Amino acid sequence: MATTAIPAPAPSGTTAWHALTVKDALDAQHVNEAVGLSAAEVESRQAAFGLNKFADAPKEPRRQVFLRQYADPMQVVLLGAGILSFFIPGQVPTGVLLILLTLLNAYLGMSQEGKAEASVAAL
Description:
This protein is mainly alpha-helical. It has helices at about 20-30, 40-50, 60-70, 75-85, 90-120. The protein contains five helices and no strands. The radius of gyration is 27 Å and the shape is rod-shaped. The chain starts with about 20 loop residues before the first helix and ends with a helix.
């Protein structure tokens, strides 16, 4: 048996725009469906409410994005093993390799995040 979820009522004093029909929403905004808004009304509403677009989010510094890659437990384990290898006789090359691998992994993660952010921004 299928059930339908009923949306919670909007707080008093606000309009539940998603629950209105197109005609009711247009009437509430005093808009004629056939004509739309006049240029003067568009300018008036833009002056009152601003442009109809999302605010740009502050960009996170690249250094912080790079360091955040080390929040992954595996990165921390590899970095710790690399540092520990410096104290084991004959394992310095292993330590260098492990640290270089964590740096490469952090760089790749940072660049992937940058590509993902660019894709989202393009939408």
